Amino acid sequence: MNNLPRVLLLGGTTEARRLADALSARDDLELVTSLAGRTAAPATAAGRRRVGGFGGTDGLVAYLRSERVAVLVDATHPFAAGMRWRAHDACVETGVPRLRLERSGWEALTGDRWTVVPDVAAAAAAISAGSARRVFLTTGRGDLASFAPAADGCRWWLVRSVDPPARLPLWPAEVILDRGPFSVEAEAQLLTRHRIDLLVTKNSGGDATVAKLRAARALGVAVLVVDRPPSPDGPSASTVAAALDWVCATLGISTAG
Ligand SMILES: NC(=O)c1ccc[n+]([C@@H]2O[C@H](COP(=O)([O-])OP(=O)(O)OC[C@H]3O[C@@H](n4cnc5c(N)ncnc54)[C@H](OP(=O)(O)O)[C@@H]3O)[C@@H](O)[C@H]2O)c1
User: Fold this and answer.
1) pLDDT tens digit sequence for 128-140
2) Does domain 6-104+230-251 have CATH number 3.40.50.720?
3) CATH number, domain 114-226, options 3.40.710.10, 3.40.1010.20, 3.30.43.10, 3.40.50.720
């Protein structure tokens, strides 16, 4: 092990990859990106990588100590609801400074027909109670089971995910495997071709998947927006540049590299 300060970056997002690009180019720190290992073929990130859970808060505490981590940046997805709390607790226990890097959420604009719900269970309940007959689900394969109560045969489902769902508890349904970025034109064509009358999305924010909302606005399609889960208190950044500044300031090194 060298004497360079080590940065542990909890990844799985575009922002984490961009921060990894910036940090791995420096010779005054060492970067380790950690991935949960959920995606079969994750987009590559610069720098060293470790894959798989730590084994809860205790496992992360042990890792932070054994690897002599100097700072932790939690750049997990806005909807990865658990890791941020384990990162918070482990950093409190070890005294390792922690930053939450989370991109801003999307906001409704004029012409949007949004209904905001607190979680996917509430989204499923709203679908059951509503009149939509052709639903486009973009909430990810991990949450499909939550929509099963709304699969009563009264509506058709279009499901889009990066990797194939292990099980499809919805019927009748069609699955599209695809990863953003998507264009507004292609999203509008998809909504039109499948006569979608309800789009369901998490409020993930960012550019890669915002086109579906622009297309829905242009076509007047209703959208169910699942709100973000809560985050622990503490330092946070919504941009990669601000996170880079925080890492450098916390380590006492120049932002210029
Ligand atoms: N949820 C989403 O919508 C979504 C979307 C895109 C990408 N992702 C990415 O996929 C990963 C898993 O998402 P999730 O919703 O299952 O997260 P989660 O509920 O916050 O975390 C569940 C468990 O997965 C492990 N884990 C999560 N992120 C990790 C990381 N970066 N490195 C090592 N272990 C990690 C941890 O296991 P241990 O307790 O054993 O350490 C954690 O307790 C996250 O890294 C996230 O950034 C999630």
Assistant:
1) 999 999 999 999 9
2) yes
3) 3.40.50.720
10 in ligand 1 pocket by Cβ < 6 Å?
Answer: yes
Q: Indicate whether residue 38 lines ligand 1 (CB < 6 A).
A: yes
76 CA to centre of ligand 1 in angstroms: 7
Q: CB of 11 closer than 6 A to ligand 1?
A: yes
- The model's pLDDT over 183-234, given as tens digits with 9 standing for 90+, comes to 999 999 999 999 999 999 999 999 989 999 999 999 999 999 999 999 999 9
State if residue 64 touches ligand 1 by the CB under 6 angstroms criterion: no
Q: How high is the mean pLDDT in each 10-residue block of the chain (257 residues)?
A: 91 94 95 87 74 97 98 96 97 98 97 97 97 96 94 95 93 95 97 98 94 98 97 97 98 90
**Residue to substitute in 77, 100, 231 for testing ligand 1 pocket (most ligand atoms within 8 angstroms of CB):** 77
Q: List own/partner pairs for 244-253 with CB under 8 A and 24 or more apart.
A: 244/19, 244/22, 244/23, 246/73, 246/99, 247/7, 247/23, 247/29, 247/71, 247/73, 247/99, 250/71, 250/97, 250/99, 251/5, 251/7, 251/28, 251/29, 251/70, 251/71, 253/5, 253/28, 253/29
Would the CB of 82 count as within 6 Å of ligand 1?
Answer: yes
Q: How high is the pLDDT of residue 1? A: 61
